[in-house]
């Protein structure tokens, strides 16, 4: 039987959809009923409610060791998708607790239960830092502890260290490092918030860029890697490196709203995150834009997907077409 952690999140829910479609016996961890409803809604969206009922749900938390005991009974493979995504400085301790300590718990249970293979969903945030002579980030780019990293990036890097520790102790592992993941059903999380903001009339854009990928490609490749003899490797999973202006224009055209038309210069973004922080400080309103968010919108890093393309002889969905196919106004 296959265990999926984070089955109520974007990647985990889509992974469950694909695993069930392939006829797998699946158990998924959930923390509360509300989370299960999100996954159920995704299955309903794809007219797969009957398949949803075949999932065995176990209430557990990756940082609560006793609750994981029952979840691992009879498990042969684990997809570890559960994580906290936050760029708020106040969440530093929670990020380390959930992403690093939680991953250590999963690794330990895999080892003690003789799980055959573990797939961990990391992030491009956990990849290395370019040296002066380098221009493209790959799986071999070395992490430089002297460079600045967000708390989120540090937590995902720390989680990867736990995965490699498991590998050294005899566990077969796969690490995937997706870019920004685009997918349906989770509009209040991650990339869903970007799409929502553009739909609500976002006015600003930047020429910063990052790597994007459709969730369908992420889960398809995860399953292929887990079903293959490939192990003890990490793979960057991205479709393309795209500027935020290009992405926002495609989203706006798809949603039939006005494109963002004002370039947000670095100094303007610096002012904005400070204003947002002050507003949060004195009014208790949510801080929608952090310093780390600003950094991401100005980023110019280019990521390589050549390793996974060569290893699996695979190609990726076009991100722009994926947006048009899945987010258009009906």
From TrEMBL:
<feature type="domain" description="NAD-dependent epimerase/dehydratase">
    <location>
        <begin position="2"/>
        <end position="228"/>
    </location>
</feature>
<dbReference type="Pfam" id="PF01370">
    <property type="entry name" value="Epimerase"/>
</dbReference>
<dbReference type="InterPro" id="IPR051783">
    <property type="entry name" value="NAD(P)-dependent_oxidoreduct"/>
</dbReference>
<protein>
    <submittedName>
        <fullName>NAD-dependent epimerase/dehydratase family protein</fullName>
    </submittedName>
</protein>
<dbReference type="InterPro" id="IPR001509">
    <property type="entry name" value="Epimerase_deHydtase"/>
</dbReference>
<dbReference type="InterPro" id="IPR036291">
    <property type="entry name" value="NAD(P)-bd_dom_sf"/>
</dbReference>
